[in-house]
Amino acid sequence: MEKLIRRIGLVAHDAMKKDLIEWVLWNSELLMGHKFYCTGTTGTLIQEALKEKHPDVEWDFTILKSGPLGGDQQMGSRIVDGEIDYLFFFTDPMTLQPHDTDVKALTRLASVENIVFCCNRSTADHIISSPLFLDPDYERTHPDYSGYTKRFENKPVVTEAVESVKKRKRKK
Fold first, then answer.
1. CATH number for the domain that contains residue 28
2. Quick check: is 165 in a domain?
3. Measured between alpha carbons, how far is 106 from 102 in angstroms, rounded to an integer?
4. Which of 8, 112, 124, 150 has fewest C-beta within 10 Å?
5. Which residues are annotated as a binding site?
């Protein structure tokens, strides 16, 4: 039987990096064999810690850019493309982030795509200890946004825009 591979995003604000590294090390046996996507600094530090604890284990990491330098957006893109099943994003609730809009966008995309998402260690502990984490039959539901994506079908928006431009050009 083929091993279940979860695709996991790992992100942490600076004040929470140590907490996420400790959480990953604590749960490293459960995390072995899964695929990881990490923002730059966080991923580099986690890889270093895992290599120290498990020098003979090959880990599958994709390191993105640092969060404020586009890594949050790269992570969001992978979520939208269906490449991430879980996002463990340890946020710092006490510090205003200069890239707060990127953080909010990433949080929103996790919700839009209905992936498993948490922003603190307690929730991460509950997620990884859930029987669903290793259940090969568990599949998240994919929201149906066809009503939204088709909201302009059978509406004359393009025709009206073309006519408007034609009228403006005739007035010149």
1. 3.40.50.1380
2. no
3. 6
4. 150
5. 13, 17, 39-42, 66-67, 99
